[in-house]
C-alpha cells in the first residue's frame, strides 16, 4: 500500500489557498482541482496535498487528542519559526522539541489544523538534544 493524498479540511477554501501559498510557500496546482470543493497543492514530491472544503473549523488539542499531523521538513527551523511568528502563525510551544531525527515544532493553521515543522539532523551532526 502506498499513500497518495493527504486531505486538509478547511472552512474557507479561498483563504486557505492564500494562507498555504503566502505563509507556507506552497503553490496551488492546476491538476485535479475541483474548486470550490477542493484544490491540489504542490508539495514538491509525489505526495498530493488536497485542501478540501469543510463546514466548520476544528479545535485539536495537540498531544491530548487523536489526530493526524503533517510534518513539513525545513532546512533552518528557527529561521522558519521566526518567519511564521512574524506572519501571525500560532506556534504550539516557544522552543522546538527534540525527536530522534532532529527538532520539531507544532503550529496551527487558521482553521485549527495542527501541523509540524521539522529540521532533520544530518548524519554528520552530533545527536545532542538542543
TrEMBL record:
SUPFAM superfamilies: Glyoxalase/Bleomycin resistance protein/Dihydroxybiphenyl dioxygenase
Keyword Metal-binding among UniProt keywords: yes
Keyword set includes Metal-binding: yes
UniProt name for this protein: VOC family protein
Pfam families: Glyoxalase
Gene3D superfamilies: 2,3-Dihydroxybiphenyl 1,2-Dioxygenase, domain 1 (3.10.180.10)
Organism: Pontibacillus salicampi
Keyword annotations: Metal-binding
Domain VOC positions: 2-120
Amino acid at each position: 500500500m502506498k499513500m497518495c493524498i493527504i486531505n486538509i479540511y478547511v472552512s474557507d477554501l479561498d483563504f486557505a489557498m492564500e494562507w498555504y501559498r503566502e505563509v507556507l510557500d506552497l503553490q496551488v496546482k492546476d491538476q485535479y482541482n475541483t474548486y470550490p470543493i477542493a484544490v491540489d497543492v504542490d508539495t514538491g514530491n509525489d505526495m498530493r496535498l488536497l485542501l478540501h472544503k469543510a463546514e466548520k473549523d476544528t479545535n485539536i488539542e495537540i498531544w491530548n487528542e487523536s489526530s493526524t499531523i503533517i510534518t513539513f521538513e525545513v532546512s533552518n527551523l528557527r529561521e522558519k519559526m521566526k518567519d511564521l511568528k512574524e506572519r501571525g502563525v500560532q506556534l504550539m510551544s516557544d522552543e522546538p522539541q527534540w525527536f530522534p531525527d532532529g527538532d520539531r515544532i507544532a503550529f496551527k493553521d487558521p482553521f485549527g489544523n495542527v501541523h509540524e515543522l521539522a529540521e532533520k539532523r544530518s548524519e554528520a551532526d552530533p545527536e545532542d538534544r538542543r
